[in-house]
């Protein structure tokens, strides 16, 4: 986290969503985290799984790990 910058989860969610829609595979992982941990959005495990699966299929090993924890 940056020094001197306040945490803004709704803004982070919005930026991750835009990046994910443009093909950023890491943003899909972070969107999964937002949904899983209810950061900037209401908790939704099915959406978390959807984004984790998308990132995992794109080769993000951390997303594969998150999927394993979910199951």
Report on this structure.
The protein has helices spanning 9-21, 25-37, 45-57, 61-70. By secondary structure, it is mainly alpha-helical. Helix 1 (9-21) packs antiparallel against helix 2. The model has no long low-confidence stretch (mean pLDDT 94).
Count up the helices: 4
Helix coverage percent: 55-70%
Give the overall silhouette.
globular
Tell me the distance between the termini.
Answer: 29 Å
Low-confidence stretches: none
Binned strand content: under 5%
Alpha-carbon Rg, integer: 12 Å
Q: What's the total number of strands?
A: 0
Largest sheet: none
The assigned structural class equals mainly alpha
| Mean pLDDT level | 94
How do the helices and strands follow one another from N- to C-terminus?
A: HHHH
Describe the secondary structure blueprint for this structure.
Blueprint: H1 9-21, H2 25-37, H3 45-57, H4 61-70
Features:
71 residues; mainly alpha
């Amino acid at each position: 986290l940056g020094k001197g910058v306040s945490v803004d989860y709704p803004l982070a969610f919005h930026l991750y969503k835009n990046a994910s829609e443009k093909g950023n595979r890491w943003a899909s992982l972070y969107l999964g985290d937002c949904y899983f941990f209810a950061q900037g959005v209401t908790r939704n495990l099915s959406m978390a799984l959807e984004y984790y699966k998308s990132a995992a299929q794109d080769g993000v090993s951390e997303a594969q790990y998150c999927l394993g924890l979910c199951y």
